[in-house]
Amino acid sequence: MDETHNFTLARNRMVQQQIEARGVTDPMVLAVMREIPRHLFVPESYQSRAYDDCPLPIGHGQTISQPYMVAVMTELLKLKGHEKVLELGTGSGYQAAILAKLSRWVYSLDRISELSARAHRNTDACGVSNITFVVADGTKGWPEEAPYEAVMITAGAPTVPEPVFEQLSECGRMVIPVGDRYSQVLKVVQKIKGLKKIESYFECRFVDLVGEHGWLDT
Ligand code: SAH
Fold first, then answer.
1. pTM, 2 dp
2. Most CB atoms within 10 A, among 9, 118, 174, 178?
């Protein structure tokens, strides 16, 4: 069996055993998780573990999130396909690629330029082109393209960054892990008549959202 075939088998197994088995049901989310070649988004030395049930290092002290976490967060965003999406924390570009398949356009921000450049190459390599990569402090959002119908934050925040909430459109949804530096709770923040409606889901652990409206760099 060739390598591509093995990766495809591993990916189907990942979706079935780690994602469907734990209750993710959105058929569109399951389909894109089966489609996007996650092994192209991890460093070569980790390729054989790309479909394992865990986050993996991507350099600069950052990680690509666990596949299940990517699936759950994407499902919670409830994308319909027409949205302009803001993602904070490009990392490997994997989550951006998943979002791009399910929406109109993704603006993905990271503060580390090397990660952003590599993520751009990764998404190009799998033929996803409706993403704009920006190197900036995402805690200030990206006012140039606001408002966004959906916001996904893939780093742990001390609070909902106010400028980002301001850039969310009315009835828009934001998925964000909020807590201290060691553990957070995954939340969905909706904007209803200009106010926050917050639902809390489960405990999780992300790397820090570092910036003016996040954690101070240490
Ligand atoms: N979504 C990524 C994983 C994110 S890891 C993936 O699919 O691979 C978290 C990322 O958030 C890191 O790359 C880190 O550099 C970035 N980050 C942390 N603080 C940030 C900020 N203020 N603005 C933008 N990116 C930030």
1. 0.98
2. 174
